[in-house]
Amino acid sequence: MKIPFFKYQGTGNDFVIIDNRTAIFPKGDTALVEQLCNRRLGVGADGLILLQERKGYDFEMIYYNSDGRISSMCGNGGRCISAFAKKLGIIDKHCSFLAIDGDHEATVDDENWVELKMQDVKFGERGEDYCVLDTGSPHYVIFVEDLDDVNVVENGKAIRYSATYKKEGINVNFVEKRKEEILVATYERGVEDETLSCGTGVTACAIAHYMEKPTKEDTKVAVKTKGGDLEVRFKPKGDDGVSDVWLCGKATLVFEGVVG
């Protein structure tokens, strides 16, 4: 069977996206997902996303990591599928959709600037130079002096496969604080490598940065990744978390094709 696909990227985080409203994709075929995401033998992507019909929503998002397994929420994937839904004519400028972690909404302008509403986030475990947060996916955030001096893959893998996190896995983010922004690099579980950007990771890093000097004001954090610039906005929610969390940035179509 011929399966049309669309390759999207959001700050370098890239995805194969398939319109699966007619159930053309075999959802249980993890080997096919892994093959399509393979950068040498397939299309190449950090993950694969299915857009499906879901009653009460504009669509449903099913996300697979590049290892073929269904995974937790992907922020940049959520931005990309929202832009894809606009391209398909399913939505105009606003959408509501269901993902593995619950309801989301997004706005997409004519320049494919996408603002995605994430789940509320509770503050998690904190140490001297790190914290652990769940922003739809679990993230370990560690602050460093100079991001250029960090071996993201080596150090990220050491934390991800440590005794504490080996079974379930965790994404590992390294953050350098600048005056007007933070710099972020992420090792992603499931991809098992550094990615150019990670939406839930960027969200976790922005909130971790806020946790160091919390205020009662609405907050906006500029974030620079190796794949481009993002913005995270949120509001304080008591002393234990934040609400009204938005992940914002461009999401663009790279190319489209057919497999099979």
Give the tags:
260 residues, alpha+beta, Diaminopimelate Epimerase, Chain A, domain 1, 17-stranded mixed sheet, 4 helices, globular
* Structural class assignment: alpha+beta
The topology string of helices and strands comes to EEHEEHEEEEEEHEEEHEEEE
Number of strands: 17
What share of residues is helical? Answer: 10-25%
* Outline type: globular
Distance between the termini: 6 Å
Instruction: Tell me the CATH superfamily of the largest domain.
Output: Diaminopimelate Epimerase, Chain A, domain 1
Can you walk through the features of this model?
This protein is an alpha+beta fold. It has two domains: 123 residues, Roll (Diaminopimelate Epimerase, Chain A, domain 1), CATH 3.10.310.10; 127 residues, Diaminopimelate Epimerase, Chain A, domain 1 (Roll), CATH 3.10.310. Helix content is 17%, strand content 42%. The chain has four helices and 17 strands. It has a 17-stranded mixed sheet that branches. It is globular, with a radius of gyration of 18 Å. It starts with a strand and ends with a strand.
Summed up:
This protein has four helices and 17 strands.
What's the SSE blueprint?
Blueprint: E1 3-10, E2 13-19, H1 30-37, E3 47-52, E4 59-65, H2 75-88, E5 94-99, E6 102-108, E7 113-117, E8 121-122, E9 130-134, E10 138-143, H3 152-160, E11 171-177, E12 182-188, E13 193-195, H4 199-212, E14 219-225, E15 228-236, E16 241-250, E17 252-259
Parallel strand pairs: 2-3, 4-5, 10-11, 12-14
Antiparallel strand pairs: 1-2, 1-17, 3-4, 5-6, 6-7, 7-16, 8-16, 9-10, 11-12, 12-13, 14-15, 15-16
